[in-house]
Amino acid sequence: MDSIGVLMPVPMSPYLEQELEKRFNLLKLWTVPQKTQFLKDHSGSIRAVVGNAGNGADAELIETLPKLEIVASFSVGTDKVDLNKCREKGIRVTNTPDVLTDDVADLAIGLALAVLRRLCESDRYVRSGQWKKGDYKLTTKFTGKTVGILGLGRIGKAVAKRAEAFSCPISYHSRTEKPELKYKYYPCVVELASNCDILVVVCALTEETRHIINREVIDALGPKGVLINIGRGPHVDEPELVSALLEGRLGGAGLDVYENEPEVPEQLFELENVVLLPHVGSDTVQTDTAMADLVIGNLEAHFSNKPLLTPVV
């Protein structure tokens, strides 16, 4: 398979790059200055694209690559892949579900604890020598808080399971009610936000869920509520979130994702009730390896005319 061209638009996992180079002709788009000409020059040999949560395969790229057969995403989300265009052209699409569920769910709980117990601010308090001048102020308990989950898929269920260990009542909103689960279902997001202390966003990004966390939802969550976003940045109307935090209409936020990554609103930098992470939800050594192996497994299956391991399209 070493003659098969595989395009990687941006750097991802060093392990993934290494393993792809062993098996295919890996073309690293970010390393060339004239990207448009490079794509034209190699359009006849590129049969696969490996994307991620931030860079996939839009309609323009797909049209540029007439030999493209498969887009393998190094992520669960495929919102950066034009799925309709792929269906139209018979291009297969895969992702990496399940293997990152635990890490992302762990991080959601970690963010909630960090916001409520002011872990990051407390760390800075010690490092700056302030502790010598007096004890840090009291913070807020996590155990027993009502946790609302927006999107009760694999990761949402894993977040719920972890929150239950902290004696947290669980409620949720999703496209459909899941009667097999014991959690409280709310038919709209505003109602969910009105009835929880912590709102965890973990649904898929679609046109319907873009800015699903708007001013009305934020105000329903209220000045004692905490928003945790481990889904996608565009789920949240970011200017509304910033103004709510600055004005005290929202109690706090733990964010791993943003609307225009890696750009983050600087107004958030000095707020002690906000914890900011650089989109690292699944970034552990173990999960990185498992995701990379799944990407490679899907590519090898496709080019060997075997069933895909995790097909999306």
From TrEMBL:
It comes from the Eukaryota. GO terms for biological process: photorespiration. It is an enzyme of class 1 (oxidoreductase). SUPFAM superfamilies: Formate/glycerate dehydrogenase catalytic domain-like, NAD(P)-binding Rossmann-fold domains. Residues 12-312 form the D-isomer specific 2-hydroxyacid dehydrogenase catalytic domain. GO terms for molecular function: glyoxylate reductase (NADPH) activity; hydroxypyruvate reductase [NAD(P)H] activity; NAD binding. The keyword Oxidoreductase applies. Its EC number is 1.1.1.79. Residues 109-281 form the D-isomer specific 2-hydroxyacid dehydrogenase NAD-binding domain. One of its GO terms (cellular component) is cytosol. Keywords: NAD, NADP, Oxidoreductase. Belongs to the D-isomer specific 2-hydroxyacid dehydrogenase family. This is glyoxylate reductase (NADP(+)). It comes from Prunus dulcis.
